[in-house]
Specification:
Belongs to the universal ribosomal protein uL15 family. The protein has nine helices and seven strands. It has 271 residues and is an alpha/beta fold. It has a domain of 145 residues: Ribosomal Protein L15, Chain: K, domain 2. The chain starts with 11 loop residues before the first helix and ends with a helix.
């Protein structure tokens, strides 16, 4: 351990020169850390210099305003009632006027008419974009079927981590976002699909079929270990029959899909 003692000098450059001679610090480093004080210069004309260090790091003067403490005596200007006044709704603990209160007149949200409604019977589908599908294929977490292999199902998507199993209450809907990234032919069965998603999948040589799963069949698909005998899939209810028999929706009950199944069955039997 050793210490170096410098003689006090009115010329800052002498201190810089001494440090340079000792090879402890360069002139540029010293000048880069110099901060000129805002205090007025001394009477003898000497320059007041403050060096930046961990001991003088602080906010600029006036940058942080201290909050006024209340209830600490009348001399603090916020004692006694703490600026709340005497009695009244605003003086009580937890009291105050709602931002929606308009002095007693009819509130704004009651003056305007209602619009739309929330359908309590709607079957909320989990959205899935074709771009996300391609991302999981690129990561190797999804393997698209080839040839006569079974198509990808919602169980394959859940097992790959595309979505949580607990989130799939009624099914998954395929959407067309990210279709410019889709380049792998995919054969998939899913609950719903948008028009853009169908075009994107078929444009790269894939195949998509929309399939209806009721709650029991969907649970059996996602959790087959819970069943000794897998129940059969129920047919769509009347309000969904039109969707799953539509060729444009690629419904599994449509004539186009049924005809393809017959052709595939005949081809396999002939082979």
């Amino acid at each position: 351990m050793f210490a170096i003692r410098f003689r006090l000098s009115t010329n800052p450059s002498s201190l810089v020169g001494a440090l340079e001679n000792l090879s402890l610090i360069s002139t540029k480093q010293i000048l880069a850390t110099r901060q000129f004080s805002a205090a007025p210069a001394s009477k003898d004309g000497r320059e007041v210099v403050t060096y930046l260090g961990l001991n003088n790091l602080s906010d600029n003067p006036g940058a942080v305003k201290r909050g006024r403490r209340v209830g600490r005596g009348i001399g603090s200007s916020k004692g006694k009632t703490c600026g709340r006044g005497h009695k009244g709704q605003k003086a009580r603990a937890g009291g105050g006027v709602s931002p929606l209160f308009e002095g007693g007149q009819t509130k704004f949200y009651k003056r305007i008419p209602k619009r739309g409604f929330k359908n309590n019977h709607a079957e909320a589908m989990v959205p899935l974009n074709v771009g996300t599908l391609q991302d999981y294929i690129d990561m190797g977490r999804l393997t698209p079927p080839s040839g006569d292999e079974d198509p990808l199902t919602m169980k394959d998507l859940v097992d790959a981590g595309v979505t949580k199993r607990s989130a799939v209450k009624y099914g998954i809907k395929l959407l067309g976002k990210g279709k410019e990234r889709l380049r792998t032919p995919v054969k998939i069965e899913i609950s719903r699909a948008s028009e853009g998603a169908i075009k994107a999948v078929e444009a790269v040589g894939g195949e998509i079929t929309t399939v209806h799963y009721n709650r029991l069949a969907l649970r059996a698909l996602l959790k087959p270990e819970k069943f000794d005998i897998i129940p059969k899939r129920a047919r769509p209810p009347p309000k969904l029959m039109q969707y799953y028999t539509d060729d444009d929706k690629r419904g599994y009950l449509s004539s186009k899909v049924e005809l393809k199944k017959v052709k595939d069955r005949l081809t396999n039997s002939s082979n």
